[in-house]
Amino acid sequence: MPKLKTHKGAKSRLSISGRGKVMRTKIGKTHFRRNRRNTAKRLYDNKLVVAHVDQKRLKALLPYS
What we know:
The protein has helices spanning 8-13, 38-43, 52-61, and strands at 14-16, 22-25, 47-49. It is an alpha+beta fold. The two termini are 19 Å apart. It is 34% helix and 15% strand. The chain has one domain (8-61): Factor Xa Inhibitor (Irregular).
């Protein structure tokens, strides 16, 4: 049986938490940041949990995570 390949786009955008949840960064983090207040910028540092309906499909893209 051949090796399972990791999807490189998903690898750069997603991470798996210690409990197995798929985490993603918030959108809008990198563009036009200087126009925002520091408190608003800090809100973008946290990661979000991906919706549970998408978790199984996204975990298949990251087989060894």
